[in-house]
Write a structure and sequence with these properties.
With 431 residues, the chain is mainly α. It has helices at residues 33-37, 73-79, 82-91, 97-108, 115-123, 130-144, 154-180, 193-202, 213-226, 233-242, 248-259, 267-279, 285-293, 312-328, 333-346, 349-353, 360-370, 378-398, and strands spanning 4-9, 12-20, 26-28, 57-60, 65-68, 71-72. Bound molecules: carboxymethyl coenzyme *A.
Amino acid sequence: MTKIAYLTIDGTVYELPMFEGSEGERAIDITQLRSLSGCITYDPGFANTGSCRSAITFVDGEKGILRYRGYPIEQIAAQGSFIETAMLLIFGHLPSKEERSCFRELLGGQELLHEGLRHHFEGFPSKGDPMAILSAVINSLGCYHPELVDIENEEEFTMAAAKIISKVRTIAAWAYRKSKGLPFMYPNPALSYCRNFLHMMFSIPNRFHEPSQEAVRALTLFFILHADHEQNCSCSTVRMVGSTQASLFASVSAGICALWGRLHGGANAGVIRMLHRIRDGQMSIPTVIEKVKNREMRLMGFGHRIYKNYDPRAKILKQAAHELLEKMGRHDELLDIALNLAAAAMADDYFAERKLYPNVDFYSGLILRALNIPVNMFPVMFAIGRMPGWIAHWYEDHQNPTLRIHRPRQIYIGEPKRDYIPMEERGIIDG
Ligand code: CMC
């Protein structure tokens, strides 16, 4: 039986239907609210707004739960590969052996960039931010594959998804090579997804980069943990752009731009820069805590719109950072600083009262550092990992026959109607 929520405005009672998700989350359906009452809702930051029904990822922020298509993130992280995680998110089920090898083969055939696209890199300045390059080149893929701009069936979608997932690591690695003035390394189809990326990042013409098993596993884990996180800012951007029937290329390119900011995918770089400042004596841990409480700065890698508990991804990454460094026989003083900083924050009432815990970005940079990934590439690494999630969300909308263009409303607070003042009356005399 449909439950009803009652809303009274100026003495009139409006009945609003309610519905429940498969994990018991309740929603009030306000799709008819404006036509019935003339009122809209006001929810800056959309903290109380469900923008869609989605079957891809479930997060319970109070309990610290994250599941992809129903599977707990801890289980996927311990046993899964990045490619099968991508397939799970995009196609909805864990792939069979055959499905997995077909998709792998498809990815292997798509890793090269059109030579014309390679020349785009020559136009970017060497100091260009790799996120700008990534977004621009991913968008440009639409020019080189116009047959996939208007996707009409699953086969075309699968091809577009494979192109993006495969080429994004080539583009990312080349953005880095450009910044270093190093020759571009072409992908090697004999290598796995992560090995191939590390090869394009770090091999040089006469010296093949062979990463250790633990480095490959750590990178795989990093990508798996970043693969999706339901309706965050970049995912919602992808869905918003996609709602206009823009191409998959254009939509995920917009997602990269949304991810770029310091409060979202740029936070991983922000954490490391903050730890550097502590290491270099520019700030002590108590000074950081004090500045945060005085609202002079935010504690990067802490807090989350949804999690009011420990982010399960941060838990896994903290452990993984320890293990990776131990296996590599390395010590990173930034890890010690991060642990002390997290402990100091969590012992402080300011953080406890606001339920601020480490999020995915707090420890992830320590793993990337151990892999020799430079800090300005950290958001790019996030974007490579998040690509399957964006693609899955875009496709979920694309398949929805009742999808409407995303178009929020506003409460106008500007000037009421007034008459235009002619230029002469404002002293402007133009020829
Ligand atoms: N440091 C200090 N105070 C904070 C922080 C923080 N990192 N995060 C939230 N707060 C405080 C905030 O000042 C506010 O306090 P008050 O109620 O007294 O004004 C309260 O906690 C609620 O914060 P909010 O800004 O309303 O929360 P939000 O849900 O709008 O923002 C957030 C979420 C992630 C943007 C925020 O926690 C933040 O800025 N964190 C630091 C940046 C970061 O680590 N971002 C990565 C997020 S996780 C991965 C991803 O999505 O990319």
